[in-house]
Amino acid sequence: MLARVGEARLTLADLRRDWPEGLTGPDSVRYVAAYVEQWIQQELLYQAAREAGMLDSLSVRRRIQAAERAIAVGAFLSRWAAQQPVALSEEEMRAYFEAHRDEFRLSEDYVQIRYLATFTRQAAEEARRALLAGRPWPEVVHQYAADTAVAGMLSRGFHPISRLLQPSESLNRLLGVLRPGEVSPVVEWNGLYHVVQLVERRPVGSLPEWEWVRQEVRQRLEIMRRKQRLEELVQQLRRRIPVEVADTVQF
Hints:
The protein has 251 residues and is an alpha+beta fold. Helix content is 53%, strand content 12%. The longest helix has 31 residues, at 210-240.
């Protein structure tokens, strides 16, 4: 037993049931203390509510019943959905995308950039001059980038502008005004010196490439398919379980 309030007991099994996955070390000690204290507070308040007759209140009983129904329905639907996986082919998703392209027009600019950060301002200025001179990008990254992996990742393909260089307001503002081919001034931020070149911009309202919206298309189709299956399930239940509806309602 971990704690007791009146006749209610908190056991180790209760704690294990609610234990967060991967929690270890000092955080686990703090979690146990907080868990026990929260349980004690909730149990004290629950027992006080019971002594005050709250469980005999018609409105409270109705709310408990409604919560019980909602939890049961949620658990049932979760298990039902897990037993009904949605399989979508690439062809099906592409066909939906082609038929609804206008619905996926870009809601923000997408940009392709060349970006790197250096440890010194001198290195950043040299990298900037190299970009303006048209030196091959891989060579510039190899010679100047403090983190070649980040430079390579951010410089591949197109990205929504809101997700690029977001922590730095200065860099974000520059991305909004740079024209293709232009190179930003050196920006000092977070102990490093940053340079960004805009390669290409796809403005708001443009039609997206397939890969940019592939996941969104999948999610939309999955929701549509689950909604359709749920409607079919309800119809099956209506045929199996008697349902009556009054012709008129009088208050």
